[in-house]
């Protein structure tokens, strides 16, 4: 008798679940929510694009210890304001300066100043990683130079 009661209880529970789940999902959709979600999704597709005139600069041959500077010019060719959040170099001998807390509107240009203290020897290449709110999230710039050692002093007494 207990088994028959248990079987009928299970059948009744399954039947109730089947009946309650027959609501049409399409009737539960709110049109206002669909419109706001579409607007939100379209806004998220708009991203800034950081386009540099050149991504590499060669200082040529320099003397060790001679400070150098260059400017990397860029344009926001995207659909949203560009915000640079950070710029770091591969070593402490290179210092990038970028427009901080300044959104760059679509179509506008900006500059990133890179200072190199002239250290190293022979062929030197340094990278600068620019972090921004672009689709890629970062851009890589390079500077390079051939660094000559200063003239060596002759060993021994000078006449």
From TrEMBL:
Q: Does the keyword Magnesium apply?
A: no
Please give the superkingdom of this protein's source.
Bacteria
Where does the UniProt annotation place the signal sequence? 1-25
Entry keyword annotation includes Signal:
yes
Q: Which Pfam families match?
A: DUF1573
Matching InterPro entries: DUF1573, Ig-like_fold
- Which keywords accompany this UniProt record? Signal
The protein depicted here goes by the name: DUF1573 domain-containing protein
